[in-house]
Amino acid sequence: MTDISRLPGALDQHWDWQQRAACRGQDAALFFHPAGERGQAHDDRDTAAKRVCVRCPVRSACLAHALTVREPYGVWGGLTEDERAALLRRNRRRGRVA
């Protein structure tokens, strides 16, 4: 579950980036795997989601949000939940806070 205590609040300027996201209007199922999805289907869906992220003008804001709130699911800012967890671990080892 997402820790909402890390969310920046209700002010529009904290969320405006979402209006410009390349994923806006896309089927959320592309970015969040269904329960039990494994193997090639999982990899193909992640790859397709990341293709959307590559062309996104707010990719860095999206990734920063996901790292800040420790978003536990889905592709955010071009990284899967496992990739974000690995990045957070590396940052912790290096003494950085994300």
Automatic annotation (TrEMBL):
<keyword id="KW-0963">Cytoplasm</keyword>
<dbReference type="GO" id="GO:0035731">
    <property type="term" value="F:dinitrosyl-iron complex binding"/>
</dbReference>
<dbReference type="Pfam" id="PF02467">
    <property type="entry name" value="Whib"/>
</dbReference>
<keyword id="KW-0805">Transcription regulation</keyword>
<dbReference type="GO" id="GO:0005737">
    <property type="term" value="C:cytoplasm"/>
</dbReference>
<keyword id="KW-1015">Disulfide bond</keyword>
<keyword id="KW-0411">Iron-sulfur</keyword>
<keyword id="KW-0479">Metal-binding</keyword>
<dbReference type="GO" id="GO:0045454">
    <property type="term" value="P:cell redox homeostasis"/>
</dbReference>
<keyword id="KW-0408">Iron</keyword>
<feature type="domain" description="4Fe-4S Wbl-type">
    <location>
        <begin position="22"/>
        <end position="86"/>
    </location>
</feature>
<keyword id="KW-0238">DNA-binding</keyword>
<dbReference type="GO" id="GO:0003677">
    <property type="term" value="F:DNA binding"/>
</dbReference>
<feature type="binding site">
    <location>
        <position position="23"/>
    </location>
    <ligand>
        <name>[4Fe-4S] cluster</name>
    </ligand>
</feature>
<dbReference type="GO" id="GO:0045892">
    <property type="term" value="P:negative regulation of DNA-templated transcription"/>
</dbReference>
<dbReference type="GO" id="GO:0047134">
    <property type="term" value="F:protein-disulfide reductase [NAD(P)H] activity"/>
</dbReference>
<comment type="similarity">
    <text>Belongs to the WhiB family.</text>
</comment>
<dbReference type="GO" id="GO:0051539">
    <property type="term" value="F:4 iron, 4 sulfur cluster binding"/>
</dbReference>
<feature type="binding site">
    <location>
        <position position="53"/>
    </location>
    <ligand>
        <name>[4Fe-4S] cluster</name>
    </ligand>
</feature>
<keyword id="KW-0804">Transcription</keyword>
<feature type="binding site">
    <location>
        <position position="62"/>
    </location>
    <ligand>
        <name>[4Fe-4S] cluster</name>
    </ligand>
</feature>
<dbReference type="InterPro" id="IPR034768">
    <property type="entry name" value="4FE4S_WBL"/>
</dbReference>
<keyword id="KW-0004">4Fe-4S</keyword>
<dbReference type="GO" id="GO:0046872">
    <property type="term" value="F:metal ion binding"/>
</dbReference>
<protein>
    <recommendedName>
        <fullName>Transcriptional regulator WhiB</fullName>
    </recommendedName>
</protein>
<dbReference type="InterPro" id="IPR003482">
    <property type="entry name" value="Whib"/>
</dbReference>
<feature type="binding site">
    <location>
        <position position="56"/>
    </location>
    <ligand>
        <name>[4Fe-4S] cluster</name>
    </ligand>
</feature>
<comment type="function">
    <text>Acts as a transcriptional regulator. Probably redox-responsive. The apo- but not holo-form probably binds DNA.</text>
</comment>
